[in-house]
Structure formats: structure tokens, C-alpha cells
Amino acid sequence: MIDIAAIPVSAVRWAGAVRIIRSLFPPIDLFEDIADPADWPLLIAAEQKTNPRLMESIGNLDLVPVGRRVAGPGASYLMAPFTHISNDRPSRFSNGAFGVLYVGDTFETALFETIHHHARFMARTREPAGWTSQFREIVLAVDAWLHDLRGGDPAHAPAIDPVDYTESRVLGSMLSAAGSEGLVYPSLRNQGRECVALFYPDCAGNPVQGRHLDYHWDGRRVDMYRDAGSGQVYRII
Questions:
Q1: Where is 136: in which H helix or E strand?
Q2: How many domains does the chain have?
Q3: How much is the pTM?
């Protein structure tokens, strides 16, 4: 087990970080509003009188401390990963019991990270070759003090294993319980670049929607992506 007290903590400030998500997830009106997050419970109570399905879109708001909630344009991209969680959807640093916002330091990093996971999904479901679901690029800023796994310490290697997430999920759970803001670690899919796993939505800001993207599955791998706006197609090598 990794000793969390021995992991250094570093200030991470990225102005042009990128997250890529499935386009099927729409913005959530409550989060996009400029209302003070402290007033959200009252707004929800009033809205539920006419919209009984409201909580399905918002998710579990109690999972985010009031003081760490964010609101305004683009806030859905920061809040939703923390209010919509499931034990059926674990990730590298979470067993599904808490949310994590994963962000790459560049577009290419986010692209290769998401291509990897999308390809695993396509292979498991034995999808036929073709253009698949649309994704959207979110450009944002990261500003947080994060536990730093970039130093090459052999003791940290199990937490950044490219295949086995067992130790990374244990580490993530320990750090989350201890109040950590998250981790910064080497990208496993884009060598020489970095990713962050943020445990609170206010560790990021200024989210702006960028390009819409399509990924092409050739039956074995994602071999191309397309900028849906321009129609330009790029081959993955």
C-alpha cells in the first residue's frame, strides 16, 4: 500500500487543459444558472413541483460540499462528474463511490486517453466498424494543489499501472477520504504528457466547449477522428 504521507503535493496550474466527453450528456440548467450554489436546495424544491424528473438530470448534489460547488456557464462540465456516479462505472482513481474529473494537459493527451477507453468499450461490445458516438472537447483551466505521482518513485508505480487499476483505486479512495484535492500523474496514453484527477469541481474553472469530434472504429482500434465542424479527418498513428 502506498504511503500517502510520502507523496509530494504540487501546485498545478494549466490554462489550456482539455477534457473530452460524450456529446450525449446535455448541460444541466441548475448548474448553468448564476444563482448562488447555497440557494440550490430551495430552487430544486420549487422546481420539483412541476418537474418530477429534475433529480435525474442533477444527480446527487449532496456528494459535493456546498463550499466547493460551482455555477454559471459551463459549470455542468465540472459538476456532473461528481453528482452522477455509480459503482458500475469505476475509473482509474475511484471505485465508483465518488466522482473524479479527469483532464489532460493538452488536446492530444485528452484525445489519446479517451480513444484508449473508447476502444476498450467497442471491443467488449463487439461493435461493427464505422464512425461512432460524437464527443465534445472542453477547454478549461486547472488550479489546485495535487498529490504528485510524476517523480518516477518506484513506490508509486502500482498507482500508474497502464492496465491494472487495483492499487490506483485504493490510493484514490485513501486520498479522497483524507481531503486531497486530487492527483497529477504521467499520461499512460500520450508519453511525456500529464493528466490530473480532480476530486472537487472548483479545482478547475472557465470551461468552454470546443470542437465536436467523431471517432472511427475499424473493428480493432480507433484509427481516425473527425472534426465534426470542419469535416476534416485525422488518422491516429
A1: strand 130-148
A2: 1
A3: 0.91
Region label for 206, one of left (φ > 0), alpha (ψ between -120 and 50) or beta (otherwise): left
pLDDT tens-digit readout, 93-130: 999 999 999 999 999 999 999 999 999 999 999 889 99
Q: What is the DSSP letter of 128?
A: P
In Å, what is the CA distance from 22 to each residue of 72, 80, 135, 138, 168? 21, 12, 4, 11, 24
Does any domain span residue 228? no
Q: Note whether residue 119 is domain-resident.
A: yes
Burial 166-201 (b: 16+ CB within 10 A, else e): ebbbbbbeebbeeebbbbbbbbebbeebbbbbbbbb
Cell of 201: 469541481
Residue 226 falls within a domain, yes or no? Answer: no
231 domain-assigned: no
